[in-house]
Amino acid sequence: MYDEIFFFAIFKLLLMEVEVVKPSGAQRSKEEIISILEECRKSKLKVKEFVKTKGIHEATYYKWRNKYASKKKKRKDLVLRH
Known about the structure:
By secondary structure, this protein is mainly alpha-helical. 77% of the residues lie in helices and 0% in strands.
């Protein structure tokens, strides 16, 4: 009986920890987004690989890039990526 209570208490704590560590739909500030875009541009990884390391979707990256990157950087990024 006590083992079951202990198990469920630990299980509940683990679930709470997971929720705190990785909130779904967390929004990032403009500065964080620009920092991520610059980091990706400087990295040697392809976009698909880079976004996996950051835990964002590839479509989100391109949405951010289109919204926050200058046209000159976009062209340069396209040339470097292809």
